[in-house]
Design a protein that fits this description.
- It is a single chain.
- Helix 1 runs parallel beside helix 3 and helix 2 crosses helix 3.
- Strand 2 and strand 3 form a beta hairpin.
- With 105 residues, the protein is of the alpha+beta class.
Amino acid sequence: MKIIKVINNNTVSVIDDKGKEQIISGKGIGFGKKYGDEPDKDKIQKMYLVTDSELRKRLIECLTEIPYEHIKLTADLVDYISSHIDGQLNESLIITLSDHISFRH
């Protein structure tokens, strides 16, 4: 796994071992990192494999503007909900819910 873009101190975009782009987050995962570095696997708290390019763009914008704690809370909520329902949730739910939780004027 190699970093292709540092989004902020807590979020980076990577190419995984299968050549797929993913967005990973974790406290301090992007701090001091640059293109080509390997992320610290111990710091990975969430991995996002987003197949839609427009959704990936929105996710990156969201991750740069919204506090990490709000995104983590949202991801934990979505994981909890997913484990208690049948079916699959829309992958854009993390973006829209994070933005709503972190609503700024």
